[in-house]
Amino acid sequence: MASDAVAIRPIALGDVVALRDCVDAVMRERHYLAYQEAFSIEETKAFVARNMRERNPHWVATHGPRIVGWCDIRRDPIPVQSHCAVLGMGVVDSYRGRGIGERLIRAALEDARVQGFERVELSVYAKNTRAHSLYRKIGFLHEGIRIRGKKLDGEYDDVHMLVYFL
Ligand SMILES: CC(C)(COP(=O)(O)OP(=O)(O)OC[C@H]1O[C@@H](n2cnc3c(N)ncnc32)[C@H](O)[C@@H]1OP(=O)(O)O)[C@@H](O)C(=O)NCCC(=O)NCCS
């Protein structure tokens, strides 16, 4: 598959089912994200609608009718923190390592810049070396570590907090 067969574009309301399938596939791997299965269709629809209404950057990678990756940046609802936002992302396993994650995060961060965000934060598990490499390449700074902040199936991991200033 040529990587240019994968398109990067802002999400649309019609993407809800395909987005949920994509997020579910990555969550069920259990290693990388905070939840182990996706939210319901209704919850996903509300999340997408809110992002569109509030102009939160939410970009997807599509291959034909499939969504194979996403990157969302949600504004902090607390008034004194409304210049801040939290980033989440993922790419379906069989599409990784082809530049899709980098295209997604660059598009979403540029959108965030246009929307006037100043600070984009994220949490990443210590063992997720691939994601650490991507965020380092983009220019995220390391802010701190929540030691043993993750516990799943009795196993701990540290949670690293990163930030990107726009
Ligand atoms: C992390 C993730 C989003 C990266 O997306 P991707 O499409 O695989 O990454 P890309 O192909 O765009 O690679 C971009 C950069 O990521 C890093 N990277 C990608 N694959 C890597 C690998 N196997 N080992 C180490 N670094 C890797 C490199 O820095 C790479 O830049 P380079 O090609 O110049 O070396 C993707 O692997 C993923 O979805 N992982 C599971 C979910 C997840 O971890 N989400 C983030 C939670 S914080």
Give an overview of the whole structure.
By secondary structure, the protein is an alpha+beta fold. The model has no long low-confidence stretch (mean pLDDT 96). Strands 1-2-3-4-5-7-6 form a seven-stranded mixed beta sheet, sandwiched between helices. 30% of the residues lie in helices and 35% in strands. It has a single domain (3-165), classed as Gcn5-related N-acetyltransferase (GNAT) (Aminopeptidase, 3-Layer(aba) Sandwich). It contains four helices and seven strands; from the N terminus they run E-H-H-E-E-E-H-E-H-E-E. The structure holds coenzyme A. Coenzyme A binds at residues 26, 32, 89-91, 96-102, 122, 124, 128-131, 133-134, 137.
How would you summarize this macromolecular structure in one to three sentences?
The protein is an alpha+beta fold and 166 residues long.
Strand sequence of the main sheet, in spatial order? 1-2-3-4-5-7-6
In the CATH hierarchy, the third-tier topology is known as Aminopeptidase
Biggest pleated sheet? 7 strands, mixed
Rounded mean pLDDT is 96
Radius of gyration: 15 Å
Bound molecules: coenzyme A
Number of helical regions: 4
CATH superfamily: Gcn5-related N-acetyltransferase (GNAT)
**Strand tally, please?**
7
Encode the helix/strand succession as letters. Answer: EHHEEEHEHEE
Structural class: alpha+beta
CATH architecture classification: 3-Layer(aba) Sandwich
Spans of 5+ residues with little confidence (pLDDT < 50)?
Answer: none
The level 1 CATH classification is: Alpha Beta
Into how many domains do the coordinates divide?
1
Tell me, what's the shape?
globular
